């Protein structure tokens, strides 16, 4: 085990190296050392600066994710690990991180998948093996897949699910155009909070569509961020038999409006913005 | 076969377009690009391909045919995408005041030609 003094010396040396050569990859161990010392603000500065130079480095995104995770910014941490995996699908740190987040969120199947990949890619990683064993053990105890999170991982993902019992979600968009068919409000996990949608043949598809939209808000945000475009405002998809229009009323929710192709996208934007205002009021009422 | 980079110039000539790419949807890699120097195409390609895939699945789940045009609007710019035949996606990155209508037409034209 290293002494605190030795680590401080290391940090000093690495800081000097980085100052002498800002393009150096030494920002990776330096950021990690600062994180381990709990100097999250300094660690974040180092990581963000490094990411600015090396946006395609999966290790840099992994480092930033760990710092964000330590700071309790778990959604952002998830986003960074997700980017790391897109850049390097075998990245062990990202698989471990996302696996852990899924575990504490209670999604044991996805946790298992990521941790199995991490353990398979780097069999000597004791942490990955231990986490995998833990998930398997929890799954064995919870055959329905609803994990008991009362163990040592519990509480890390401290983002309470939205309480939809406090108001009538079926009447969420009452009075708006297409209130019962063609408007869906969902959370970031792809769970429908209100509204409804049927396919052209009359099948109820709101829940399936919501599930597919999980994470879209984060991906749209990441894309805009990477391009230096600021925050994303809206996302539209034209299909030969319908238009889809999305906005994020809050950081935790996504609003989808679906209309026939004959409805111009400009009008759809207005309808969506009205619905977003209603959704924000409704969400406020739940809190 | 027309050189892709040259073909992309029909898009980058549109007012407000900062760059255009052809991206492989399945692996998120850049096939061809014509971008301004300050734009790193690789991560944008990966994320745009992922977003396009997700929206294709969403429209399928909604009982609609796959999207022909995607438009991500952000504070200071925009990302446009048009799926082409097979696995390819035409992507354009634009300023806030980009002529979306014209860029869309050029992208659809390129996609329809089968790239």
Q: Care to describe what's here?
A:
The complex is a heterodimer of chains A (287) and B (115). Chain A has 287 residues and is α+β, with helices and mostly antiparallel strands. Chain A has two domains: 4-141, Serine Threonine Protein Phosphatase 5, Tetratricopeptide repeat, CATH 1.25.40.10; 154-284, Dynein light chain 2a, cytoplasmic (Beta-Lactamase, 2-Layer Sandwich), CATH 3.30.450. In chain A, 53% of the residues lie in helices and 11% in strands. Chain A has a five-stranded antiparallel beta sheet with strand order 2-1-5-4-3, sandwiched between helices. Chain A starts with a helix and ends with a helix. Mean pLDDT of chain A is 80; it is low at 144-167. Chain B has one domain (2-112): Beta-Lactamase, CATH 3.30.450. Chain B has three helices and five strands. A five-stranded antiparallel beta sheet of chain B has the order 2-1-5-4-3, sandwiched between helices. At the A-B interface, helix 5, helix 9, helix 10 and strand 3 of A face helix 2, strand 3 and strand 4 of B.
């Amino acid at each position: 085990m290293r002494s605190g003094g030795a680590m401080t010396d290391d940090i000093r040396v690495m800081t000097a190296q980085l100052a002498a050569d800002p393009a150096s990859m030494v920002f990776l161990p330096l950021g990690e050392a600062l994180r381990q010392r709990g100097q999250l603000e300094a660690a974040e500065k180092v990581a963000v600066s490094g990411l600015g130079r090396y946006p395609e480095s999966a290790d840099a995104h992994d480092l930033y994710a760990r710092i964000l995770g330590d700071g309790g910014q778990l959604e952002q941490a998830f986003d960074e690990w997700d980017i790391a995996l897109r850049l390097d699908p075998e990245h062990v740190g990202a698989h471990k991180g996302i696996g852990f987040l899924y575990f504490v969120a209670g999604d044991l199947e996805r946790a298992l998948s990521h941790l199995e990949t991490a353990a398979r890619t780097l069999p000597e990683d004791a942490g990955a093996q231990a986490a995998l064993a833990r998930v398997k053990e929890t799954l064995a105890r919870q055959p329905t897949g609803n994990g008991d999170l009362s163990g040592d991982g519990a509480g890390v993902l401290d983002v309470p699910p939205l309480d939809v019992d406090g108001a009538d979600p079926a009447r969420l968009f009452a009075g708006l155009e297409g209130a019962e068919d063609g408007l869906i409000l969902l959370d970031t996990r792809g769970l429908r909070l209100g509204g409804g949608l049927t396919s052209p043949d009359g099948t109820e598809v709101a829940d399936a569509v919501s599930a597919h939209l999980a994470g879209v808000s984060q991906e749209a945000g990441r894309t805009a961020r990477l391009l230096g475009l600021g925050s994303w405002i809206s996302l539209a998809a034209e299909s030969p038999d319908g238009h889809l229009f999305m906005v994020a009323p809050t950081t935790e929710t996504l609003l989808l409006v679906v209309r026939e192709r004959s409805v111009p996208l400009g009008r759809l934007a207005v309808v969506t913005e009205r619905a977003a205002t209603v959704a924000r009021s409704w969400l406020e009422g739940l809190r | 076969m027309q050189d892709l980079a040259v073909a992309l110039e029909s898009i980058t000539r549109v007012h407000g377009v900062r760059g255009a790419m052809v991206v492989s949807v399945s692996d998120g890699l850049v096939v061809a690009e014509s971008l301004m120097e300050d734009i790193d195409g690789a991560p944008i390609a990966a994320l745009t391909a992922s977003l396009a895939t997700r929206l294709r699945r969403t429209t399928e789940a909604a009982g609609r045919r796959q999207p022909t045009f995607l438009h991500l609007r952000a504070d200071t710019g925009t990302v446009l995408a048009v799926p082409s035949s097979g696995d390819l996606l035409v992507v354009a990155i634009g300023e806030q005041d980009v002529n979306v209508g014209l860029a869309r037409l050029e992208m659809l034209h390129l996609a329809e030609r089968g790239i």
